Amino acid sequence: MPYVPTRDIITYYEEAGSGEPLVLIRGLGSDLQAWAPQLPLLAKHFRVIVYDNRGAGRTGAPDKPYSIAGMADDLATLLDELKVEKAHVLGYSMGGMIAQEFALRHPGRLEKLILLATTAKPDGYVRAVLQSFITIRRTNISREGFVRALAPFLYTAGLFDDEDRYERAILASVQNPYAQQDHAFIRQAQAILAHDASGRVGGIKAATLVVTNPGDILIPPRHGEALAKAIPGAQLKSLDGGHAGVTEYPVEHCQAFLEFLGAAVTA
């Protein structure tokens, strides 16, 4: 079974493809199933490792404080268990924060780094949005109600105008058999609120690609732009979409990832 002990929890992971290891890290509230649109494209070129973060999916969800640094150490331990010495790492949203800490705490384990729709430090706006999510999650709102409340922060207007596609996106989350527990969402959100690598990301040595999305109103592009300026030699790329642009436009995003990672891209 694809479960391994990682520090004080048991972590669930899956693999696809072969070649150089590429780890994909999800964001707040989501699990590895959300990588489904990207996995077949990336697995043609890499040994892709996806896993559920602490508090998500089929991984342990202790009701005690989480930290971004601790989740980076979770990843290092997972790689130890999988006998992976070094890997490319792609982190999305909260996953991008984990990837930053992984790059700083475990630099010898990292090949290339991709930071997608993320920030080195939540500013006042992002903090206010996250606090509102926490407040909603502490109510007795239904799973579907919560998913619909978050959707405007994730998707573009075009998706909402396509009613069938929008409803499919909602149902994919609502029908997840491994839906996140309330306490785990709040613990993850609190870890994000405490994250601050803004004074340290200049120490990242790995080749880095920072990807922003012009329609991202959860973590606006200015955060990625600041990251790219702070990390020596980092590339900055803007791709279509909102915060979940990688979900709405998987092919375009994967093409950019593969190009940066040096894999052949089929037109």
Describe the structure.
By secondary structure, the chain is an alpha/beta fold. The chain is 40% helix and 16% strand. The protein contains eleven helices and eight strands. The protein has helices at residues 39-42, 68-81, 94-105, 124-137, 143-150, 157-161, 163-174, 182-193, 221-230, 245-248, 250-261, and strands at 3-6, 9-16, 21-25, 47-51, 87-92, 110-116, 208-212, 235-238. An eight-stranded mixed sheet has the order 1-2-4-3-5-6-7-8, with helices on both faces. Helix 9 (221-230) links the parallel strand 7 and strand 8. Helix 2 (68-81) packs across helix 3, helix 4 runs antiparallel to helix 8 and helix 5 (143-150) packs across helix 7 (163-174). It is globular. It starts with a strand and ends in a 6-residue tail after the last helix. The model has no long low-confidence stretch (mean pLDDT 96).
